[in-house]
Every structure is written in structure tokens, then in C-alpha cells.
Amino acid sequence: MSKNNKKNMRNKEVRRKKRAYAYLRKSPNKFTDNTSIEKQLEEIRKYCEENDIELVDTFTDDLKSGKSFEGRDGFKEMYNNVIRSKDDVDYIIVFKQDRISRDTLDTLYIMKRLNSVGKHLISIKDNVNTEDPASKILVHILALVAELEREFINMRTFSGMEKRAEEGKFLGGKVYGYKTVNKELVVVPHEVEVVKFIFKKYAIEKWGYKKIASYLNIQGIKTKNKQYWTINAVKTILQNQIYIGNTKWRGKYQKGQHEKIIEIPLWNLAQETMKTRSYKQEKVHPGSYPLSGLLKCPECGSSMVQGNSSSKYKYYQCSKNKNSGKAACSSNLVKKEYAEETILHELNNFFQNLNLAPYIKSATDSLLCFELEPLYKEAEKIDKEIKHINKKMETVMDLLDDETVPFDDKVFKNRLLGYQEQLNKQKLKLEEINTQIRFKKRQTSNEIIAYSVKNFSDLYEVLSDEERKSLCHYIIKEIHIFKEENTKQRKIKSIIYNFSPDNLSLV
């Protein structure tokens, strides 16, 4: 075969038309998103035509929650086809990112799995194409923005709970030893005896958690959730200040209005016993070491992982040394706190140089719809109930005007008063919902954008360990360390990013 023929064949391969699946799903709430299946498909076909992409097939799911993949057979079939390289498609195309999932971590996982087999996700409305390195960063930014906005909303929409907390009222949840009556805690006598038994056996007779749990299980006594007692269940009882008359709100305790079960001297004895007893230190979750695998040993070049740290000092350690000992390599410990603070500072500078504002604005607008969806649904439900109560009241009034119906002033009056009380409660609930809706609409995208761009370190704080690690690994390829004998002098030498500022420009 001649060189020209080979060259022509290579050019044909390069020019192979890209292929894609379309995924369609309608929002379960008509208030927040009325983009029909037909409209989504129309936009996807238009996008494919404009970008010379062959649309191979479409997959559709009925109205389902965007938070779960359960029952979404269309998505599962499409996803499995892509992963198994059926139809040789290059992309999954959706109209909006939330058609895949409203859970950002789920979307990140799907994106990563697609990327691992050389496939990509395109979201038309969100301007996301994970074939573009910048979009990979953008998806993580969306996660950060989502977390931040939820924090803003939670701070201001929980004012009712804050007021109850200030008054020492119970804020909800199941507590062994109590039941909730009209939002107030009321003791359950037979459960109270179990709580007192746990405290006395632990604090006075020095029984351990496991011994107490085993005894209760043998006696056939179950937890509030009708489960067997465990070590953690017993420990939770012993640490819960509700039993001494306190309530908790956002990590702080204060005097409550409910009846206490445990006297202060017994409580203090139990807490002192807990402090003096020694237990094996729990292993730190690997996810709390976000730079594992990124830091490189200055001696052998192997990845550095969670080190054999103490409760006070934590380190990253050469993986070869950790697995094979000194004969393979030295530990070359790097202080965890130093490494992560340094990288966070560098990432903050990294994001300052990116122009992500237009994309974040699109994301926050979409996020607003996500947050409003359940509120609109609840408002609709309450509105129907109000209409139903009004209809009942009208029926009673009609009966009063009907001369053929025996009149009992007391019965009719009590019935009307009952309906009026129900009506007032529903109107109050509706007003609370509408207040939340108004607040969310006032929470401008510009405020979120400005904050997210300038305060990356604050955004990082609200992420879970898993999200932090995922973000670091998407942005950073390797972190190199200076080779020094002394741990204190072992500093970060350089950072190699997965993306350079040149291919991150979104202007």
C-alpha cells in the first residue's frame, strides 16, 4: 500500500463522524420545569446537526425523582450500552444536566466512568461537554456552588427552628425514652427504665458498651427503631444530653422544657468514666486524606498515602515504605496539615485565574429550580387542602339555610370552629412555604458567583471528604516534594495540574 493511500485511510479515521445517544426525562413538577420530552429531543437533534454528530438512538424515562436511578430503566440500558461500547457511541447528550441526576456526586461518578472508557457527557443548556477539560473543572465548581447555596438557604429558612431552639423546645427526631406529642417530648415509662439501667450499669458497675448491648438483646429489648442494640446505640444514649433536660441545635446544648430522665451526678459520673477508659483509636477514613496518590515520594517516586499517624500528628507516607518497610524505601513523612493547607492555597490561586462566571450563573439558576421544586409541590398540596376545608364549611353553611334540616346550634358551631381551626393551620403552613419561596428567589445568582470565585477556601470547607478528594484528583496530576532528611523541612516542590491555564480559558 502506498504512503498516500495510508495517509488517506488515516484521514478517514480522523474524520469519523461522532455518534451519540440522547437521554430524555421530564421533570416531575410542572411548576419548575415544563420542558417537554419533545422539546428536549428537538434541542438535542438541533445540537447534533450543528456539531456534525450522528444521533444513534434515544432513551426515555417516565417522571421519576432526579435523586435516584431506581426505576429508570431507560437510563440503565443506555448507560450499560455506552460502557460496553455497543453502537460505538461517543457521547450521551442531555438537554440539562439534571436530566441525569440532581445529585452532583452521582453526576460526577457517571462522568468519571464515561471518561474511563473514552466517552463523554454533553449537557446543552448547561454548556457542559466533558470532552473539554474545562468542563470537568466546571462540574466540580457546580458541586461547590450547590453546597454553598444550600448553606445560605439553610441559614435563613430555619428561623422557625431557631426560635424553637431558643425557647428550649424539642426540634424533632426519635429519642429513646420519649415520644413526641404535639411537638413536645413526653416520657415513655418502660423506655425510661432502660435508659436508667444503661447509665447505672456503665457509670456505677463499670459495664462496657458491648456487655450492656448484649444484655438488652438477650432480654428481648429493642431500640426505638425495633433493632438489636449495638455498641454505638449504647454510646449514643450515654452521650445524649436530652436525658438531663437539654436540647441541641447546631451543635450547641441549652436548657430544654421537657422532663429529664437522668440526674446530673449520674450523668457526670458516666462522662467521667467515658474519659478515663481507653479505647482503640478509630482508623481515620481514607477519604479524609484527599492528597493520597497525588503526593509523590521524593526518594522513589511512589505515591504517598495515609501514614501511620498518631492522634496528634498526621502524615502522608511513602506507600512503598508502608507496604514493604525500610528495605523498599524510607517513610519520607509529610505533615498532613501543611500539605493540605498549601494545596488549598494554590488551588485558590488557580481558580482566581479562571473566568467561570457565565457557567456558574447558569448552574445557580438551574439550582434555584431544584430548590423550589419540592416547595411548589408542598404549596400545591396545602392549597388543595384549604379548598377542601372551605368546601366543607360551605356545606355546613348551606345546611344552616336549609329549613328541612333539624337545627342544633351547638353542633353546627363546634363543627364550624373545628373547620376554621384546620383552615388557619393550613394557611399558616402555606405562608411559611411561600416565605421560603420568596427568600430563595431573592437569593441572587450574582451573590453566589461572587462568593464562589473569591472564597474557594470557604467552599472547600463545606465539601465532604469524598468530594474534596474527588476535586483534588480531577484538578491535580502530581505533587512533588523536596528531598530532605528532616520532616519539618520536607516541603512541596511543585504541582503538576491535569489542565493548564491555556486550555482552561472559558472566555
Beta-strand residue percentage: 5-15%
**Strands ordered across the widest β-sheet:** 2-1-3-4-5
> Total strand count, please?
15
Give the radius of gyration: 30 Å
Alpha carbon gap, first and last residue: 46 Å
Bin the helical content: 40-55%
Mean pLDDT: 77
Largest β-sheet summary = 5 strands, mixed
Number of domains: 3
Unreliable sequence segments: 279-287
The structural class is alpha/beta
**Overall 3D form:** flat
**What is the tally of helical segments?**
17
Would you give an account of this structure?
The chain is an alpha/beta fold and 507 residues long. The chain has 17 helices and 15 strands. The chain folds into three domains: 16-131, Resolvase, N-terminal catalytic domain (Rossmann fold), CATH 3.40.50.1390; 170-276, Alpha-Beta Complex (Hect, E3 ligase catalytic domain fold); 281-507, no CATH class. It has helices spanning 3-14, 37-50, 73-83, 104-116, 133-157, 159-166, 189-203, 209-218, 231-239, 264-276, 319-324, 336-352, 357-401, 409-442, 445-454, 456-461, 465-475; strands at 18-25, 53-61, 91-94, 120-123, 128-129, 178-181, 184-187, 246-249, 252-255, 295-296, 304-306, 315-318, 334-335, 476-481, 492-497. The strands form five sheets. Strands 2-1-3-4-5 form a five-stranded mixed sheet, sandwiched between helices. A three-stranded mixed sheet has the order 10-14-15. A three-stranded antiparallel sheet has the order 11-12-13. Helix 13 runs antiparallel to helix 14 and helix 13 runs antiparallel to helix 15 (445-454). The protein is flat and about 90 Å long. The model is unreliable at 279-287 (pLDDT under 50).
